[in-house]
């Protein structure tokens, strides 16, 4: 006989009807999905949609992380921009004006020395080993007496300073023109450009030597340096004219380029003729001591010097609108900055 347990309800309470097990299961299954999701959100703080997508809290957290990443990246870029060195231009001058001053300075100084020495030191500047009659003193004579020698040396020092960078500017300028010529002529023309640079530098050095070593102090050395100056000067003129003929062959020239080439040829012809006259009268003065031979020698010497100065003065037509500047900044930045600017030849 099976024994059953019975529960006696409290006094005054009606007995509860028993609930079947399958009824409880049906009640759980009928519970809405939103209620389950609500319970899940209250328990774990997440809300999963019916498609199984990311949670709202996770999305909010990812947005915050993305904003922080963007803020950090922006801050780093600003910091790099502040740390990156900027380009500073410390000096900007017209290259045309620099060339004009450089070319005219020795010419004006030479004229000043000639006038002052001829007026105030006539006997000193006309003294020669032949002791014959002369009326025109040589350049070495008027720049070898005091105080003209100091004025001339100071002027040549100021003249030589810009001449050295100008020589390299010309080299780069000529190399930029190589794209205009046929490829077969490029090696020969490049060699000619290098030769012009070397001759120009030797001429500048010889000019300094003949200036600071006067004929009164050391005549043999002064004479050899003067010969070096003459040879390099004439070779430089000839090579420059030849180079211009190669670079501008079959090219339409501007008015300034035509003026430059024309005067270069004229001044070179004057230098050649003056050199021939100088050699003739130097021989007459040195070996025969003819009257006025030294004056004619000095006259042709002045022509050579003036022709040389004016030949270099033609740079005003070669570089009519360029500028010279001193720039501070990283090399890569400078190349990028200069590369972004239009280039004019």
TrEMBL record:
Domain (CWH43-like N-terminal) spans 95-320
**What keyword terms does UniProt attach to this protein?**
Membrane, Transmembrane, Transmembrane helix
Q: Does the keyword Cell cycle apply?
A: no
Residue ranges annotated as transmembrane are 98-120, 150-170, 191-213, 225-245, 266-283, 295-317
Q: Which portions of the sequence form the region Disordered?
A: 1-25, 55-78
Q: Name one GO biological process term.
A: GPI anchor biosynthetic process
Q: Which GO terms describe its cellular component?
A: endoplasmic reticulum membrane; Golgi membrane
Which InterPro entries does the annotation name? CWH43_N, PGAP2
The lineage's top-level taxon is Eukaryota
Give the matching Pfam families: Frag1 (PF10277)
Provide ranges: composition bias, Polar residues: 69-78
Q: What is this protein called?
A: GH12034
Tell me what organism the protein belongs to. Answer: Drosophila grimshawi
Taxon lineage: Eukaryota, Metazoa, Ecdysozoa, Arthropoda, Hexapoda
């Amino acid at each position: 006989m099976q024994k059953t347990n019975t529960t006696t309800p409290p006094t005054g309470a009606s007995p509860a009807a028993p609930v079947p097990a399958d009824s409880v299961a049906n009640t759980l299954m009928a519970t809405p999905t939103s209620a389950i999701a609500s319970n899940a959100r209250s328990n774990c703080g997440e809300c999963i949609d019916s498609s199984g997508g990311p949670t709202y809290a996770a999305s909010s957290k990812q947005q915050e992380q993305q904003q922080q990443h963007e803020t950090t990246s922006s801050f780093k870029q600003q910091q790099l921009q502040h740390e990156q060195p900027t380009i500073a231009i410390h000096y900007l001058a017209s290259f045309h004006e620099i060339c004009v001053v450089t070319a005219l300075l020795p010419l004006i100084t030479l004229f000043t020395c000639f006038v002052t020495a001829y007026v105030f030191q006539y006997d000193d500047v006309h003294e020669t080993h032949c002791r014959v009659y002369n009326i025109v003193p040589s350049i070495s004579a008027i720049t070898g007496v005091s105080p003209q020698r100091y004025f001339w040396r100071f002027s040549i020092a100021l003249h030589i300073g810009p001449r050295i960078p100008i020589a390299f500017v010309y080299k780069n300028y000529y190399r930029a023109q190589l794209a205009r010529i046929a490829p077969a002529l490029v090696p020969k023309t490049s060699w000619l450009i290098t030769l012009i640079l070397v001759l120009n530098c030797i001429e500048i050095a010889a000019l300094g030597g003949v200036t600071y070593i006067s004929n009164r102090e050391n005549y043999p050395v002064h004479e050899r340096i003067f010969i070096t100056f003459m040879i390099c000067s004439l070779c430089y003129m000839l090579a420059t004219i030849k180079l211009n003929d190669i670079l501008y062959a079959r090219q339409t020239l501007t008015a300034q380029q035509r003026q430059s080439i024309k005067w270069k040829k004229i001044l070179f012809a004057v230098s050649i003729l003056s050199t021939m006259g100088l050699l003739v009268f130097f021989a007459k003065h040195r070996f025969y001591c003819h009257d006025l031979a030294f004056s004619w020698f000095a006259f042709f010497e002045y022509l050579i010097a003036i022709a040389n100065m004016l030949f270099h003065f033609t740079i005003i037509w070669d570089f009519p609108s360029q500028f010279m500047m001193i720039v501070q900044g990283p090399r890569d930045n400078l190349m990028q900055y200069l590369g972004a600017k239009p280039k004019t030849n």
